[in-house]
Specification:
About 10% of the residues lie in helices and about 45% in strands. The protein is mainly beta. Strands 1-2-3-4-5-7-8-9 form an 8-stranded antiparallel β-barrel. Strand 2 (about 70-80) and strand 3 (about 90-95) form a beta hairpin. The model is unreliable at about 5-25 (pLDDT under 50).
C-alpha cells in the first residue's frame, strides 16, 4: 500500500487528535471537597488528583510507657491506590508507612504525620479524616510539587476494641479500610 504525503498527514493528525481527547478526558479537573474546617486545605492550594485507596490499617499491641497495660498502636497503612472507585479501575500507586504515597511513575510524597490535622469521620468505626502536610517528596513527576494530602470518605480501619493487653504485646492486626485521597499543589 502506498500513501501520499497528504494521507500520512491526515492519519497522523487524526491519531494526535484522538490522543489529545483521551488526555483531556483523563485529566478532568479535581473539585475541592466539602470537609470539616479542621482539615481544609489552604485556599491557595489546588487539588490535582483524587485517588481511591483499598487496603489495611495495621496495628501492633504495644505496652503503655507507664506500665498500666497495652494499647493498639498504628504501625503502618498498606493500601493500593486507584484512579477511581470503580471496580477494575487502573492502579495509580501505593500508600504506606511514613505516611507515604508513591505513584506508578516512581515519584513519592512523604507526609508529616506529627503536624497532620484531624477531623472525626462521620462513621465512628472509620479512621479519622486528615490533612497531611509535606515532609519530603519529589519535585517533578506525578507527585512532584504536591504539598498536602487529604484523607476523606473513610470506611473501616479502626483498631479492635479488645484483644490487646499485657499478655498479647507484640501481636499485630490488619484492619480493612478504604478512603479517598486528594492531592494538592501549592498553598
Amino acid at each position: 500500500m502506498t500513501c501520499g504525503f497528504t494521507g500520512v498527514v491526515t492519519c497522523i493528525s487524526t491519531v494526535l487528535a484522538a490522543g489529545l481527547v483521551a488526555a483531556c478526558a483523563s485529566s478532568a479537573a479535581v473539585t475541592r471537597p466539602t470537609v470539616p474546617e479542621a482539615i481544609e486545605a489552604p485556599a491557595s492550594a489546588t487539588p490535582v488528583y483524587r485517588w481511591f485507596a483499598k487496603g489495611t490499617q495495621n496495628y501492633t499491641c504495644t505496652a503503655k510507657a507507664d506500665g498500666s497495660g497495652a494499647d493498639w498502636k498504628l504501625t503502618a497503612p498498606e493500601a493500593t491506590l486507584f484512579a477511581s472507585a470503580d471496580e477494575g479501575a487502573a492502579q495509580v500507586g501505593l500508600h504506606g508507612i511514613g505516611p507515604s504515597w508513591a505513584a506508578t511513575d516512581g515519584t513519592r510524597f512523604v507526609g508529616n504525620a506529627a503536624t497532620a490535622n484531624k477531623a472525626p469521620a462521620p462513621n465512628p468505626s472509620a479512621v479519622p479524616w486528615l490533612l497531611v502536610p509535606k515532609k519530603d517528596g519529589d519535585t517533578t513527576g506525578t507527585l512532584g510539587g504536591v504539598s498536602f494530602v487529604q484523607r476523606i470518605d473513610t470506611v473501616g480501619g479502626q483498631p479492635p476494641a479488645t484483644g490487646c493487653d499485657t499478655t498479647t504485646v507484640g501481636a499485630t492486626v490488619k484492619i480493612p479500610y478504604s478512603a479517598t485521597y486528594i492531592f494538592y499543589r501549592g498553598g
